[in-house]
Design brief:
By secondary structure, the chain is an alpha+beta fold. The chain has one helix spanning 191-224; strands spanning 7-12, 17-24, 36-41, 44-46, 50-52, 55-62, 69-76, 80-88, 99-102, 107-112, 120-127, 130-133, 143-146, 152-157, 166-174, 177-188. It has a five-stranded mixed sheet with strand order 1-8-7-3-4, with no helix packed on it. It has a five-stranded mixed sheet with strand order 9-16-15-11-12, with no helix packed on it. A three-stranded antiparallel sheet has the order 2-6-5, with no helix packed on it. This is EMB protein.
Length: 225
């Protein structure tokens, strides 16, 4: 990559595995001499175990989430070049825009894991800094949780009230850790869509009243004449 701007690569892992990370210097940097190569995970230095011409590698045995994170290879000579590998569990896709519904209606929220199958799904409602687990088996008249497949989960909220307004999280558990998706639900009062209509009705009433009073005034004036 370019000097001063590290290249970055995301690597998604859902289960234990053995991987090799390798950095190879681009041919346009073949002029660099006396390269010093360092691998790091955070502030911890890792010794590379495999070197070929202009290429340095490390082998990792990923057994749990303690081995996930960012691994950086740093090449120093006349210039400094680096690359970062981000080892992470699969990301969960929710919905970016808030879900808008009205009091008394039903809202459905969906989370998906593309290409990876979670061991389990859990839904939460965020209450400030706390998370409240949504248990549909205890509140069958309020929540229904199901999935079309193991990669998808649906949360259905029945008979919406203003208390249902807020942030919801779907958590997918994988062998190497957990991944969270966030969704927002906005519950509006039934009066909200009626406000523009009521405003128009009020304007019409005022206008009709003014016209009626003007006609009454005109008729009285004619009688006096």
């Amino acid at each position: 990559g370019a000097s001063g701007a590290p290249m970055e690569k995301n690597i998604t892992l859902e289960s234990a595995t053995r991987i090799e990370l390798s950095c190879k210097v681009d041919t346009k940097y073949s002029h660099l001499k006396s390269l010093q190569v360092t691998w790091r995970k955070g502030n911890e230095t890792i010794k590379h175990i495999n070197k070929t011409e202009n290429s340095w590698s490390i082998h990792l045995q990923i057994l749990d989430n303690s081995k996930l994170g960012s691994y950086t290879c740093i090449l120093k000579a006349e210039e400094e070049i680096s690359a970062v590998f981000h080892l992470q569990v699969p990301k969960i896709e929710g919905k970016e825009k808030p879900i808008v519904s009205y009091e008394g209606d039903t809202a459905v929220m969906i989370c998906k894991s593309f290409g990876y199958t979670p061991i389990a799904w859990t839904w939460y409602m965020a209450n400030g800094s706390d998370q409240v687990v949504i248990n549909d088996s205890l509140l069958t008249d309020k929540y229904v949780i199901n999935g079309g497949s193991a990669n998808v989960t649906h949360l259905k909220i029945l008979k919406l009230t203003k208390e249902d307004d807020g942030v919801y999280q779907c958590e997918a558990a994988f062998e190497l850790g957990k991944s969270v998706g966030t969704l927002k639900l906005k519950v509006l009062s039934l009066m909200v869509p009626l406000k523009p209509f009521l405003a128009i009705v009020a304007e019409v009433v005022v206008l009709v009243t003014i016209v009626f009073l003007y006609e009454m005034y005109s008729k009285k004036k004619e009688k006096r004449a």
